[in-house]
Amino acid sequence: MTYIRNNTILITGGASGIGKLMGQMCLNRGASRLIIWDINSEMLQEVADALTKEKYTVSTYQVDVADPEQVQQAAAHILGTTGAPDIIINNAGVVVGKTFWEHSYLDIQRTMNINALGVMYVAKAFLPDMLSRGSGHIVNIASAAGLLPNPRMSVYASSKWAVIGWSESLRLELEEYYPAIHVTTVTPSYIDTGMFGGVKAPLLTPLLKPEKMAAAVLDAVEKNKILLRKPSIVYLLPILRGILPTRVFDFLIGRLFKIYTSMEHFAGRPAADAVPTSIPKT
């Protein structure tokens, strides 16, 4: 069992959406310190002000997780002051929501760097200290998009496939050599936040409520769950892909469940809430 109470939690992409909710819930569950990494300085300040007014201990860092130098600099500061976090939640992510040929080279690079490389950079920065300490928990927020193809999500899906493969491989490595360090991989369907504004919920997979999803992730951490897939029907995807011919799977998922048309009216975050492309190196 992993304890949130009296422990230090680091959440990337923690200034808004489900990341912000998970941070608040960690503090409500008794976390001793919350460390928030985000690229948006204004949102960081807002969430820090709100939480410190409630007498919580919160540290914020403006970090672009796609930049390994920024990750290492921020991690070095944390390691030199409070030590390695007990729990890391790799939550930062972006989605473009276009057909592949409409992506710019920058879109592709940014999506892969944040969604796939970013989680590895963060884990790499803190793992040596976790290994020395002999304990820790890394949570990687992937996506159900990492389990099946989906039009207008080609690059996003590829980034999340990469996260799942890396996260599960990391888990096996740690179980062999450092069994007290745990890895939880989370693969939710669409969450009702600004990130997926405009999507149409597929059949039998309603938009997930952010509060319920955030609580489910923390419950999974406390129970040392290996995988968390929401809604429950997501657990069937690997089975269906394994046993059905591709065209039958496409018909079932695309025509009947309407997953392949779920991104047709994707709008994403409102312009006012858009995530900056990058931040200056410090």
Corresponding CATH architecture: 3-Layer(aba) Sandwich
CATH class category label: Alpha Beta
> Widest sheet: strand order?
3-2-1-4-5-6-7
| Share of residues in helices | 40-55%
Structural class: alpha/beta
What is the average per-residue confidence, as pLDDT, rounded to a whole number?
94
Question: What is the count of helical runs?
Answer: 8
Assembly type of the chains comes to single chain
Number of strands: 7
Low-confidence stretches: none
Strand content: 5-15%
Question: How many whole angstroms does the radius of gyration measure?
Answer: 18 Å
CATH topology: Rossmann fold
Which key phrases capture this entry?
single chain, 282 residues, alpha/beta, Rossmann fold, 7-stranded parallel sheet, 7 strands, 44% helix
Could you explain how this protein is built, in words?
The structure is a single chain. The longest helix has 29 residues. The chain has 8 helices and 7 strands. The protein has a single domain, classed as Rossmann fold. The chain starts with 7 loop residues before the first strand and ends in a 26-residue tail after the last helix. It is an alpha/beta fold and 282 residues long. Strand 6, helix 6 and strand 7 form a beta-alpha-beta unit. The mean pLDDT is 94.
